[in-house]
Amino acid sequence: MHTIKRNVVRWLVVLGVVLLVRPVHAQWERAREDLNFYTNNLSGPRFGLTFIPAGSELSDSLKVHEINPFFSQFGWHFEQQITPRKGGPALVFELIPLIGAVESGTLLFSSTLVLGIRLPDGVEFGVGPNLWFLGTGIKSSLIIAAGKTMDYSGVNIPINVAFSASNAGVRMTLLIGYAIGPPD
Questions:
Q1: 10 Å Cβ neighbour count for 52?
Q2: How many domains does the chain fold into?
Q3: Domain check: are 28 and 77 in the same one?
Q4: The model's pTM
Q5: Distance from C-alpha of 72 to C-alpha of 148, rounded to nearest angstrom
């Protein structure tokens, strides 16, 4: 008798799970149908200025190469933006190779990968790894960036500030540029 009760309980549990899973699955299918995104390529040129404060390995490297702690940056910003068709924040994937300090006669190369979010009003923030190439070798750091992209009839003008931190020191960068994309 005890075995029959246990088997009945098992069958009731299995039946309950099956009956519950079906509506949950249907809700998930409807939710997936509502997910509709579009992607934009918002790549374009970037230029700006980087500052490295004194008292770090990075600033010492600049002195060795006779580079001012304020130096120029020029490069290209590769960006893919994924936006929900029904509105909301966009997911942003960015790759930014830069050449810096051209005015010093020595070139500094850097490359940054940023994963971020852009809100509907254009405010954006992101984080990612950075590689920096100077005569002393390759340095890595973490970049934290924020900014705002202004849309003027399909011409996007981003202004971003980035803070880079590593054991070798800190850097602060201001970048501006443009990208041609569909208007919001």
A1: 23
A2: 2
A3: no
A4: 0.76
A5: 21
